[in-house]
Amino acid sequence: MATPAQALSGVTPEALPTPSLLVDRARLARNIDRMRTRLATLGVPLRPHVKTAKCAEITRLMLAGQPGGVTVSTLAEAHDCLDHGITDILYAVGIVPAKLDAVAALVADGAHVTVLLDAPATARDVASRAAALGLELPVMIEIDSDGHRAGLRPDDPALVEAGRILDAGPGTRLAGVLTHAGDSYQCRSASALEAMAERERVCVVGAAARLREAGLRCPHVSVGSTPTALYATRLDGVTEVRAGVYVFMDLVMAGIGVCSVDDIALSVLTSVIGHQHERGRMFVDAGWMALSRDRGTADQPIDQGYGLLRAPDGGPTPDAPDALVVTATSQEHGIVTARDGAAVDLSRWPVGSRLRVLPNHACATAAQHAGYALLDERGRVETYWPRRGGW
Amino acid sequence: MATPAQALSGVTPEALPTPSLLVDRARLARNIDRMRTRLATLGVPLRPHVKTAKCAEITRLMLAGQPGGVTVSTLAEAHDCLDHGITDILYAVGIVPAKLDAVAALVADGAHVTVLLDAPATARDVASRAAALGLELPVMIEIDSDGHRAGLRPDDPALVEAGRILDAGPGTRLAGVLTHAGDSYQCRSASALEAMAERERVCVVGAAARLREAGLRCPHVSVGSTPTALYATRLDGVTEVRAGVYVFMDLVMAGIGVCSVDDIALSVLTSVIGHQHERGRMFVDAGWMALSRDRGTADQPIDQGYGLLRAPDGGPTPDAPDALVVTATSQEHGIVTARDGAAVDLSRWPVGSRLRVLPNHACATAAQHAGYALLDERGRVETYWPRRGGW
Asked: A274, A268, A292: which is closest to B115 by C-alpha?
């Protein structure tokens, strides 16, 4: 389907419809370079997570100088990668046997798919179904390094039990261990991030050691989250790092201290559609449909509401830099106020004027849109890049 | 694009991929009948809001027995309606002049589009741009009946001023007044809802009277919100009612008391993908990507987390009816616990078993999906209905 943004390539963002999702190429490139440089220093390759951008063109940029494998969170992302010639795919959400027919279809089309699980019973069911489908499926075991979500603790006897089942095959083979330090999003200092990265490393390297002590091969040891990837001081024993949100960065990452607000490459272009003079607030056409309902900064020291306002060129808003936020949303309305409760100078923002909104959580905001208007270094629309949503 | 659900028509939901968005035809029909019957009793036609379902097939069901006009929240919805032969379209989000080129394109394709604004300056700019485009655009003035969002108070002198500008044309004509009692979502009793509906009516009918006293025509007087539409006891002076979420209903509506949990026609089919035995909780493959980040029940007497669990057939979960909720989400993971903090009986829900999640907010959850798997009265997949997202 042709999009308005496609038709408008080469124009200034002022001619884009609103709301539109914008990506600044210069900030995108800077964020990608920063992660590449950081991991090169530590001597570990990146397996970028495509779940944030879900866009083949952006995945290609993330893969520059890397071995070429990716991480996905949906089978739709896997199909999109394969459609664009990327074959080494780690599907990093716990697998269930019913999804193996879809995995087999990807494999038949040339993909090398690795799946994830965290229990002996699941390993047994997956091995059985994979064998019936004629697969010899590489499987990672998920390790819980922070109590955040799924995974086995490294000292759980179920780890070696699951490893033995996967190793015995015939439908599976043990590919390694994987962890995600989701709790790193709760860190508030560089030293806390460094400690979290080290804890993530120690847990998963320890789990690999236990499997190897049991006589099992454990070739891959995978860690990942944007904060720990950027703050790890050593990655001994780790074979790959996964990260996704670093490509855009967002207000949650800025709140943790992982980036500055000026590093955020993703924004939603919006129009002022109304004023409420007696309360000194204004309405924009970016509601939760365009911004998402994510309130990830609500528990951070600086609550950014549903997003921080920027001028149309991406710089701070005049007179009130870093002070205007989307305080409330309905489906297609955002209510803009000053963060400190002071009235907005509405005369600066007549109905029809444009603003940008920086996202709390890039993954969530990007998910509300079908694609990206890419802005070049002069701020002109360079092209339109579609996203691949769904499952 | 072919979807898995399309390929699976006629099968049981067990064969659908997860997560998938389900609609129960029987509940859908019941909700539509209820609104139709209620408004027929009050003698006022419905202009259904398509923003909830964004699906032409569902819009057709909502339009049965009604004049045929719809309400939209985006130009994409307007295009989808026009593609399906629906021409009377009210675009009920404040217009800006830059969007009038797109409106003119719809009009050129045969649509009768009415737009909305709430300030004399905007009326002037819209009239000027509409005239330049050769339009004679019907315009509604938005009235603020509850301080919830946009609109003019009925006693604001700007109301008659805006009316005169629109009436003078040549690009515009005054079509009427419109209000949305968004604050009705805060009501907690039938009497509060009745009072809110009456306040909505009095405000907008009063605004129409002021315009008429000033010698202006004000043919249309439009009110709407699902709670006030269902609880209004009289609608004298009102010419149409707008409502959208009633078609699916959701946990927020159940929390207000507008429907029962069993009336909710929309759910997300999900698979159990893991267990955390020591905490008695389980993981499902419906995270915020499938459910949305909406926490609309957080401030209600019963907090439903990110959604209430149902058995695969849509009935209450065995042993723990109305007690299991999605307590936390990441992108593709939902964490399920008992609402009272008690451990879930994980033996009942092995990895790979299926559940449904009822949404807090139907508009937000549906927005995360490309379409609906429609279930017939026997619970089999009848067909797949696509949604029209974007702007």
From this structure: A274
